[in-house]
Amino acid sequence: MKYDPIKRSLGEVFNKTPFLRKVFYNLLDLLLLRTWHVKKEIRIWAKSQSGKANILDAGSGFGQYSYFLSGINSSWTVKGVDVKDEQIADCNNFFSNIGRTNASFEVADLTKFSEPNKYDFVLSVDVMEHILEDTQVFKNFYQSMKNGGMLLISTPSDQGGSDVDEHEHEHSENSEESFIDEHVRDGYNIDEIQAKLKAAGFSSSRASYTYGSAGKISWKLSMKYPILMLNASKIFFIILPFYYIITFPISLILNYLDTNSYHKTGTGLNVVAIK
Question: Are the C-beta atoms of 152 and 38 separated by less than 8 Å?
Answer without folding.
Answer: yes
